[in-house]
Amino acid sequence: MGLIVQKFGGTSVADLERIRYVAKRVGKTYDQGNDVIVILSAMAGVTDRLIDMAAQIAESPEKRELDVLLATGEQTTAALLAITLKDMNYPAISMLGHQAKLVTDCTFGNARILEIGAGTIIDLIEKRNIVVVAGFQGCDINGNITTLGRGGSDTSAVAIASALKADICEIYTDVDGIYTADPNICKKARKINTISYDEMLNMASLGAKVLQIRSVGFAKKYNVPIHVRSSFSEEEGTMVVSEDSGMEQLVVSAVTHDKNQARITLRKVHDQPGVAAKIFSPIAETGIVVDMIIQNTRAEGQTDLTFTVPKEDFSAAMEIERKVAGKIGAEDVLGDKNIAKVSVVGVGMKNHSGVASIMFNTLARENINIMMISTSEIRISCVIEEKYTELAVRVLHTAFGLDKED
Ligand code: ASP
Ligand code: MG
What we know:
The chain is of the alpha/beta class.
């Protein structure tokens, strides 16, 4: 028995039949004597449709109003689940973000959680209610409705779990856990039983789409154990928890890939103080996130500088850099959208040498050229030609002993 937060994603509440199924699942947990708080996403596709409707009216709809609009998706599912639970004779009550006292800053569309007044929910739980909270939304100190960014109901769930000191935060989704690689391209990928917050953070930023990355940062900070599992089966999924010594036995835990990258090179930049600042400041000002950066060694007072940006920001970044190049006297700006980043991630890397050389040798055997390399304590990433992504993921998965047995 304990306090359990259960979050259901959009596909799990996509229609009334699935909502009924969710209600049964919630009811079962409650019947076992647990206190249950449910966090819901909007029905699959609804948030996109709402955004689309607003876009048909105005080119850039006012963000405050957009949040009022988007929050209705989660309002709908929260109410429907509470109605369903009550119809099944459970004492359920729905709550919107402001009712759950989820206070955020004023950044409409991507608000950060400042605090959660847990008292209201605690009172209801103590009276053995099932509390159903609309995910993805909060309110700022002026009472405006805010939303937490796409995929934000994961963060709502983890935040509420931490504020209420829940025993576990279960994230129910349409996959049965986190895999050692994307099972769509790597048939031998295995489900991971336990993974650390840091590994998950590294994987999320590399394109694993299961959890909103902010929720993992939150979980790490407040030490909330997350269980990612399927809402369509009873099987155990993947536990995302703080690191323990056993985890280091496995050197590499997963191979990830990210095709959403593009590369920009400034040729023959003067190698002197202030140049990098001139190249990256205007990019940062527009809010474009630069990922990898490499600078060549100097030759005759000049150097090449290469970096990557998300594909959708490529044209904007190229335009900025062409202007910068003119100002700082760089010879040329080159761009390449046909790249991908493949990475190996694992906390075990901290205590093992030779991971990089296995990675490079494995790619070399397949004649895959490495264009850029970056490393962190628990990750090595290589930028390669996009067309080799699948091949690279598969051979690395095998090389690091991750393949499942037939
Ligand atoms: N409904 C929101 C979205 O689609 C939030 C979420 O599902 O987590 O991004
Ligand atoms: Mg999601």
